[in-house]
Amino acid sequence: MSESLDFAKLVDFSNWKDFESFMIDFESKVDQDVQKSLEYRKKLKEELMKDPNIREAILPRDFEIDRWKRVLEQADQELFGGNVCAVDGTLSTYPMASGTRCRIGIVATSYRNNRIEKVLYVSEREFAEPSANAFDHYNKLVKSHRISSMLVRAIMLYSERKLALDRSEKWKFVHGELLPYELRTGLGAYRALDQCLDLGKRLIEAKYVIAVIEDTTRLTLLNAGDVLERGQYMAVSDLKNELNIYLHGQVDPSTGEQIVSGAHFNPTDKEKFQKFIDSYAHNIRVGLFRVGYKPYLFMAHRDVFDEAAALVMQDGKNQPMRGFPMLIDYADNICKGMLSQGDFQRQIQSRIAKISPDALGFEMVARGTRR
Hints:
The protein is an alpha+beta fold. The chain has helices spanning about 5-10, 20-25, 25-50, 50-55, 65-80, 125, 135-165, 180-185, 195-205, 220-225, 240-250, 265-280, 305-315, 325-340, 340-355, 355-365, and strands spanning about 85-95, 100-110, 115-125, 170-175, 210-215, 230-240, 250, 260, 285-290, 295-300.
């Protein structure tokens, strides 16, 4: 099959094989595919390292090693002295005929094991009330269903960051971007933009909140991170640039093609968002760090960027292969242990069965009844 693929070729059965034929050379095809990817990565790294600006951006520089060692020592003292907390959340959902039920849990913890958990139950049914009659109720339910998934994620992400600000520790780790997509949108009819932007302002002004991003679709940044060796970090952007792209979109300078569409705000909300960008976003730098097999993105205030890098890197060293801050994973494991998706669904099922056994079969999504 040609390497230049389109949809017509992919659905043309002449390019498919029966299972036995497919398995004969499957492993060798995977080997060739992976080898080509590795070759491209090596070539990209060589090309990037030819750029003096990139070489200069990689930290720490050789002449700064002694100072950097002292910064790392201080980071250890902060981490294991209980001056750093991590906050993470989990979202459990159970789709039902009468609307999805959700449970949102957030956990904050430190290495002194000073932890707190908060849990919220959310029902789509509640979004449809008050209603004039049953028909009105279900019409409202259909409308609320379109946004509830983003809404409950926004509630979780907002609450994680609010809890981080409420904690007494000096430094706070949050999982994901400092102001995630769900908190940038304003949530339409729920008119949450002012509250979310105010939270963003407080996160930035607090200075000591560090956002660590586990997964990203921004391949350009991740590819830039491939120039890093273990124990290195670099600044690659700032939040002002990131949010301007979100608000206005992005054009490919070589072709003039719109590659990212801008946000769909009304003029008033667009002005509010731009004011937030101009007033606060320049204070947050976006960086990459690497202590394990792969680099990760992080966001931190420019005044404490080096100290923030030291903290996430020292905590990442506690997981040498993964290289991700262990304190965040610790909070995540508590969430999953206490608030598992399966347990939540079984609890809902048991309550429905107790109230009305006949309703259980109707309320369950058909896919969930497969065996």
